[in-house]
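If you are new to this repository, start here. Below is one unmodified record pulled from the training split, so you can see the exact layout before writing a loader.
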Amino acid sequence: MDTGRLKTMPRSRLAIMVLFGLAGTGAASASPKISLDPNPLRFFELVVGSSGTVSYNVTNAGKTQLVVMDMRIAGPDADQFHFDGATDPFCGSGRDCAPNVQLAPGASRSFYVVCAPDHPGFFTSTLTVKSNAATSTIALDCTGDAPASMSTLVVTPASIDFGVNFAEPAFPAALDRTLTVTNTATAPSAPVEFQIFVPGTTGNGSFSLPLGAFGFVGPGESQDFVVEFSWHGGVVSTAPLVLRSSDASQPSISVPMFAEAAYGHLVFDDPPNPNGFIGMPAVAAGDTSTLTIRAHNDGDFALGISRVFAFASFGGIADLLGPTFDVILAPGESIEWTLTCTPDGSEGFEDGASGLVDFNYSSAASDFDTFSLFCPTLSPPPTTHPSQAQLGDAPIGTLRTVDPAITRVAPTETGSAPEAGGCSASAPTSLAPLGVILLGLFARRRVTRRRGTPRVAMP
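And here is the target side for that same chain:
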C-alpha cells in the first residue's frame, strides 16, 4: 500500500473504511442463542402410581445454527422423572438424551418429560441442556400424592341424634344437624371424594341434604354438611347416614342416626280399660263413694295434662281430687287421682248419680278423653210381712217387737179384693189378729199409766 497516499487520505474517508471493516468482523463471529420454555416444568399433584407428562420447547433465538448435543435429568429426585419415549421416541424413556439436534435460527423443537412418583413426596430435579450456544437448565417440580383413602376421614359428631319430638300432624316441622367431615391425611395426599346418602323413612318423615351431598376434602381440610329431618306425624328412624367414596374399592362410612316424632299417651291402669265408662262402688243415698284412678304415660313424648275434672249432672255431686292443672308426665311416668261421688237419692234419681270425667291434654295424640260416670245408690231392703215366727209365741197381752221392715199386715189367703167404695167383702176369718192388736193397745195403756200419764178411757 502506498503510505504516502494513506497519509494524504482525508480523515473522513479513513473512518468509513474502519467502520466497514469492523462490521464484517462482527458478522463472521456471530454465535447461536438458545431459549428453553417453560421454565420450570411443573407437574403439580399426581397420585402415587400414576404419571403426568409435560412438554418443553428448545428454540434457536440466534442468527446461526443451534446444535443441541445433550439433555440430561439429574438431581436429588431424578428417579421420579424420565423422558417420555411413548409420546416421542426421539429421546427414548431414559433420563439422558443425546440427540445432536440442529436448529436453524428461529426454529423450535418440543421434548417431553414424565413425572411418575412411586411414593408420596415433593420432588425436584434439574434438566440440563448442552448446546453450541450455552449450557442451560430447566427446573423440574412434581408432587406425588398418597392415594385418597376413606380411612383418613373423621366425622363429627360420631352419631347424629334428632331426639324425640312432638309429632305435630297439623304443621310440618323440621330440625337441622351439622355433620363435619375432616380428612386427617397429611400432605402430600390426594383429596377424598365421596357422596353422602341419607336413609329413607316410612310414615310421616324424611331426611334431606339441603346444601348438597358431594364431598371433596383435601388433606387437613374439613367440610360441613347439613342434614335436615322433617315430619308431619309420628315416625321413627334408626337407619344410619352413609358416606360412599367415588372409588368403589374404598369402604363406606356409616354414621348412626336417630330421629323420632312421637306423642304422649295416657293409659289407664286402674280401673283398666274404662272403655268410655267409669262405674263407682254403690253407696247409700247421702254417702260418698270413692275410686282411685291410676294411669301412666305410655307414649315416647312428654304428656301435658292441661286440666282434669269430674262432675255429676244428675242425682248428686262428683269431684276429682289430685293434680288437676298443667301436669307434665315424662314417658313412663305414673299419676293417680281420687274420684268421689255422692248420690242424693232425689226423686227420679233413686238409682244413683250420673255425670262425666274429663281429661284434657296437650302434646298428646288426642286432645281429650271423656268418660261417662255412674254412681249407684244401694237398694233398700225388700218389704216383707210378719209371720208367726216374727211375732213369736209370747203370751197374749205381752208387747211384741216387730221388725221395722214390716210396714203392713198382709191379707189372708181367704181375703178378697176390695169392693167399690173401699170396702172389702170377705168370708169369716179368725179374730186372732184383731185380738193381738187389742192386746197390744192394752199393754201400751198399762205402760203409759205406769209412767204417770193420765189414764184414758177406752172407747
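Two things worth knowing about this chain: The two ends are 211 Å apart (CA to CA). The chain has four domains: 34-145, 150-262, 266-376, 388-403+432-452.
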